[in-house]
Amino acid sequence: MNLRRASRRRFLGWSLAALGERALAEEAATRDSFPPVMPGRALRFPADEGSHPDFRIEWWYVTGWLKDDANRISGFQVTFFRTRPIDPGGNPSRFAPSQLMLAHVAVADPQRGKLLHEQRAGRAVFGLAGAAEGRTDVAIGSWRLTQDGNVYRASIRGRELALELALSATQPPLLHGEAGFSRKGPSPQSASYYYSLPQLAITGTAGPLDSIARVTGRAWFDHEWSSAPLEEPASGWDWMGINLDDGGALMAFRVRSPARANFWSGATLRRADGSVRVFSAQQVAWLPLREWRSPRTGAAYPVAWNVRIDELVITIEPLLDDQELDARTSTGTVYWEGAVTAQLERREIGRGYLEMTGYWRSFRP
């Protein structure tokens, strides 16, 4: 038992080092070890839906709203992370991780008034975990997110919750920034490759293990990969992906300074007619309306917002305030990830998810 605990502690140490500050080492080492994100690279589908193992970090991220046969609503998220550690140089062990995989899953249940969440971590060795190239197929043990043509399947069974969802694409990929080259700061090197699949149609089953139900709904899929850490003095970010009721889609984000000022921001709007508009950092501002303080960690999160995008002001309200996710045993951080509604002039216009990092402590992956 002591050996197993010691092994787990060592593995968690590797995981935290890979995603935390220590894994960044020196910025020069990062530049030398990983390929940069460059403008002008055309994203290719479905090839780019798979893994890009040379890059430092990558994630596949599905969020959505569910409704069961009794018309009860809930939110969910499934996220798989892949990270490539800086090469320690010549470790001959078969257990030496060339890739690390981590996963978070959560259900926001208004009936229970809290977020149910679980997490896993695994080394990409011996087929126990990994991410395939050329198509979406990421897994840690029995937890899996796979792609079959235009249908994605999330299969998760944890200690407290389970999801078996088919997510069918209804729209083409939505490219962010400059045709998928998404700037995250003033420096051209501070960028990611980033696209989304909004308005996924959901069927399947989901819920706590004691009340799994048949569900339908709408989801949002993000896929992003990069090699660059956030620029100094950035300490976290706020992000939202909203499926609009008219069939459109809205993504907005800001990278935040330690003083909670806007360091960098951006947004992408797909209108109902399929036309797309990309907004610059100067056109997007996040204005907090109300805070909720976690009774567990003491972190204070602005759970309600006005987000100004050019001439639009979108009000964001949470499905429930307590959607804090404690991921200290996998990615080494605590963040808020939750289901929200979007309103325009007090009228609901869409539903989606809001993510806020860096409120518990600075977070610079």
Commentary on this structure:
This protein is mainly beta and 365 residues long. It has one domain (2-356): AttH-like domain (AttH-like fold, Beta Barrel), CATH 2.40.370. The protein is 8% helix and 52% strand. It is built from three helices and 23 strands. The chain has helices at 2-19, 21-24, 27-33, and strands spanning 57-68, 73-83, 100-109, 114-123, 129-131, 137-140, 143-148, 151-157, 161-168, 174-175, 181-183, 191-208, 213-226, 236-244, 249-256, 262-270, 276-279, 284-293, 300-309, 312-318, 324-327, 333-344, 347-356. The strands form two sheets. Strands 1, 2, 3, 4, 5, 6, 7, 8, 9, 10, 11, 12 and 13 form a 13-stranded antiparallel β-sheet that branches. The longest helix is centred in the first third of the chain and has 18 residues, at 2-19. The relative contact order is 0.15. Mean pLDDT is 88; it is low at 1-31.
Annotation, overall tally of beta strands: 23
What is the overall shape? globular
Please trace the helix and strand order, writing H or E for each element: HHHEEEEEEEEEEEEEEEEEEEEEEE
Percent range of helical residues: under 10%
Annotation field: number of helices: 3
CATH architecture: Beta Barrel
Report the average pLDDT across residues.
Answer: 88
Structural class: mainly beta
CATH homology superfamily name? AttH-like domain
CATH topology term: AttH-like fold
- Poorly predicted regions are 1-31
> How would you characterize the largest beta sheet?
13 strands, antiparallel
Q: How many domains comprise the coordinates?
A: 1
Supply the CATH class: Mainly Beta
Radius of gyration: 19 Å
Distance between the termini: 33 Å
